[in-house]
Amino acid sequence: MKVLASTALAALMAAGPAGPALADIKIGSTLAMTGPASFLGDPEAKTLEMLVEEVNAAGGINGEMIELIQYDDGADPNKARTFAVRLIEDDEVVAIIGGSTTGTTLALMPEVDAAGIPFISLAGSISIIDPVEPYTFKTPHTDRMACQKVFEDMQKRGISKIGMISGTGGFGASMRKQCLEVASDYGIDVIADESYGPKDADMTPQLTNIKATDGIEAVLNPGFGQGPAIVTRNYSQLGIDLPLYQSHGVASQGFIDLAGNEAAEGVRLPGTALLVADILPADDPQTEIVRAYKTAFEQKYEMPVSTFGGYAHDAFRILVAAIEKAGSSDPEAIRDAIEETSGLVGTTGTYTFSADDHLGLDLSAFKMLEINNGGWTLVD
Amino acid sequence: MPELMQFLLSGLTVGAVYALVALGFTIIYNASDVVNFAQGEFVMLGGMITVFAYGAGAPLPLAAAVAILTTVFVGVALNKLAIEPARGAPVVSLIIITIGASILIRGVTQIVFDKQIHRFPAFTGDAPIPFFGATLLPQSLWVVGGALTVFVGLYLFFTKTLTGKAVLATANNRLAAQLVGINTGWVMTLSFGLSAAIGALAGVLVTPITLTSYDVGIGLALKGFAAAMLGGMGNPKGALVGGLLLGVIEAMTAGYLSSQYKDAAAFVVILAVLFAMPQGLFGAKSTERV
């Protein structure tokens, strides 16, 4: 199939006059703009629209305008795959940004691979880039990196025995697994391991058990949605006097509002620069870019900027830089240029791709944040 | 020992939430044998409308009143627009209509409001109340109190008032009820309105604890329904006891066994009870005359 497709492609390119370097540069996207993952897809789609307008208003890439073709897959892997095929075969795009969720991303990867179209995913799972597939890249950091960031901070505070309370939803379960795998690298012993359902209203029994475990020094709560806010409130209700760590899944002002200033006081979590755009030191390499994106997005859409939109922002910047550098809109040349991306500063971190690293972020992409008086402070 | 107390308090808090939702099922069920799957949406509306009215500057009691009245309106509209036109349809069709209505309400809510998670402050602060070595949030007392009040109200309504008896009569035999002069159309409207009011009240009381968003209804309705089945569908006492029991079982399993098996343990108990007593703990023995 792959051979057939690439032969067809080669034949097509030999037959065409100057290849695809004619009119506009067509970029495709399939995102979960509606449905259960719309909190991801909605800001992502809006971000892409805004950035395309921006680039076109400034004269396009090397003088060529970008045409963005967006589809809404509603987080359905089948639809994502269909749309990927349509983007590749009917719309003849030169690159695809998309896959708001790990499920949709994994479903469309075989298609881009067979067609040889560069693809930048906006989904979290490590399985997207490990093992490395030649045409697939991604911008969000992985759960594993969040665990490592948290454990690094615990190590600095001299904490070695912790309890975990994880949501049983996809995000919490996956992060719990990643954390358990890397804990020993940081000399951390997980001596209590509790869980709760995504819709549970009270976690005091689990926290009571953690509290009663001998020698516990801190608690980590991988989870998403309302669970972590309830855990934080119950934590303060029970008067547990140990450091509480949350995950990057709840890194937003909404979390502080739900948990309440008092209960959230002192909670630490790994977050991106975008979240703390206003308090980043002026000499931080990301300061300029996150502030520019935040201002533009919030002005245009009158809603707070989110980390997820930031993933789309970074994917688009990487792609534009690669097309500029390649000097053509040939998918193969774009792919090679993306892989050569080095030191590109985005809202999520600084990207340096290589042949065996298609994520290109390191732990410095996360900032360790602490909640103080209902706002964020940088820990280091 | 403080652990046991904490598990128990947690169970009662969560159980009172389930009980409040379960109580909402009883009236419509008693009036028409229909299990109203949009009941969870009434709870959600109660919470969401209060959040937005409160956010718009209304004091909490007023916001709650607005939420309850709006939800009553939605409940009555549901009856007038969807249930009444399908009057001759079998109960199963009516139940499916309520499922459709719940999807509609959920969809409209996420457009009218948003998809975020919200809460509003607890009525009487967040300072934990120490209780035999364990702690309890003041809002839990409001929820437990609310569940008890609604229970007593419903109990008196069904056993002591003529209207309540008319509701029961309508469920028993609609034609016979009409023959003795009961306005059955009005009884249906009343029961949807009351159910919506109870649902919305539940939403107002539990939101500071459970938080709310456009999609909390399904989960709450499912647990509330399970509680109602456990206690005996249609019996307010069953709803109350079933809810509290379910909450306590969950908390004890999470505390002593494993939090992984919390939901499973609760449903195993429900299955076991229903095997032995198909009508639930307090359900009336049904005798069908032919």
Automatic annotation (TrEMBL), chain A:
**Domain of life of the native organism:** Bacteria
Matching entries from Pfam families are given as: Peripla_BP_6
Question: Which residue numbers delimit the Leucine-binding protein domain?
Answer: 25-359
Keywords of this entry? Amino-acid transport, Signal, Transport
User: Gene3D superfamilies, per this entry?
Assistant: 3.40.50.2300
The alphabetized list of GO BP terms reads: amino acid transport
Q: Which residues form the signal peptide?
A: 1-23
**Family classification:** Belongs to the leucine-binding protein family.
The name on file for this protein is Branched-chain amino acid transport system substrate-binding protein
Q: Where does this protein come from, organism-wise? A: Roseibium hamelinense
Q: What is the lineage of its organism?
A: Bacteria, Pseudomonadati, Pseudomonadota, Alphaproteobacteria, Hyphomicrobiales
From TrEMBL, chain B:
Please tell me whether the keyword Transmembrane helix is annotated for this protein. yes
Q: Which keywords does this chain's UniProt record carry?
A: Amino-acid transport, Cell membrane, Membrane, Transmembrane, Transmembrane helix, Transport
For this entry, the protein name equals Branched-chain amino acid transport system permease protein
Annotated GO CC locations:
plasma membrane
Q: Which GO terms describe its biological process?
A: amino acid transport
State the compartments where it is located.
Cell membrane
Phylogenetic classification of the source organism:
Bacteria, Pseudomonadati, Pseudomonadota, Alphaproteobacteria, Hyphomicrobiales
Query: Which Gene Ontology molecular-function terms are recorded?
Result: transmembrane transporter activity
Recorded family membership:
Belongs to the binding-protein-dependent transport system permease family. LivHM subfamily.
- UniProt membrane topology term: Multi-pass membrane protein
Transmembrane stretches, start-end: 7-31, 51-79, 91-113, 140-158, 179-205, 211-231, 238-258, 264-284
